[in-house]
Structure prediction request, 143 residues.
Amino acid sequence: MLDERRKRERNSPWVFPGDTPEGHVLVTTLDHLHGDVARPKVDGKRIYRFSPEFVLHSLRHTMHTRLGEAGTEAFTIMRIAGHSSVTVNQRYVHPTAETVERAFQRLETLNAHSGQLPSLEREIRQLPATISATVASDDAVSH
Prediction:
């Protein structure tokens, strides 16, 4: 029985596969499991295995940031995330200084070879594109 479950989970499209009719673990179940692991009680006293600020929703921010770093376009991230607009992506995609630097390097390469654009076009297109999202203030980021 355990082997059957492992096979089913391995082929599941869900990050947290489960036994629900939809095939995934319920959010409330994940929240309870997270609470048990993140803040277990030892002798009636709470200890923290993770930073108290860590919440499961942080994984969503990480995924969207990594998609941006991998060169995924803003509109593609929007569709994957189910966001209503690209503006909402700004709350989820947190570009690093290196990501911003790579974007400028690609621009400089394009500008330096502007006269050779047809021959350089394939080379530039193969470079991963990055998304630049800025947040006006810390309260704009929801976790």
